[in-house]
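Subject: two folds for Thursday's group meeting

Dear M.,

Sorry for the delay on this. The cluster queue was jammed most of the week, so I only got both jobs back this morning. I'm pasting them in the order they finished. Each block is the input sequence followed by the predicted structure tokens. Could you check whether the formatting survives your parser before we put anything on slides? The first protein is the one we discussed after the seminar.
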Amino acid sequence: MKKETLSVLVCPACRGKLTVKSEIETDAEIISGNLHCGACGIYYPIEDKIANMLPPELRDTF
């Protein structure tokens, strides 16, 4: 996920602001980690540079 993308993303559940906790990153990209919504508390995983913005109950169905 490009770091610059974070400025336009919002939580799909409540439209709250997202913050990132990266585990692996480069200067321009987040390779793995989590996006966290401060308003509703939901975490969205980032794996292989892709943010999974599905609600938690749907993540394992695809």
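Second protein, same layout:
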Amino acid sequence: MSPLTPDPGRVQHELSLTRLIDAPRTKVFRAWTEPALLSQWWGPHGMTTPLCEMQLWPGGLFRTVMCTPDGMEYPSQGVFLEIVAPERIVFTDAFGPAWVPSAKAFMTAVVTFDDLHGRTLYTARAWHWTAADCQAHDDMGFHRGWGESVERLVALVTEQMPD
């Protein structure tokens, strides 16, 4: 168990989704860790991600900008806390580059890629500091938005991305 894995019975303020993907976890992990690939699927249907920057080490920058069809931008910035290829990615918006605390920490994401006989059991968890933040994320459409992102990820790794 990773030092960043709490006792599952003790996680509070968590939203999560799980999906079995018919692709090897190395491929799914690659779609998560190459900016040009992540930009193709990151965000709900109809949104684009024209900006994706990644520094794949603990403390390294993870920054995206998602855009709606009418041009509204949704920037996000944080840092990676843990990267274990091809098993796990943990990132947070609680810090920026050089471990500078953010003005308002909202969540930490834990994404796992479990191998199931050549397929990937994909689990994305969003941990929130407060019940109010968790509820706000749920109200924003966590399951719909992250679910649509996963649909786009599945299409990329099963139909478009070469092995």
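Two things I noticed about the second structure. Residues 10 and 22 are 31 Å apart (CA to CA). The longest strand covers residues 73-84.

Cheers,
T.
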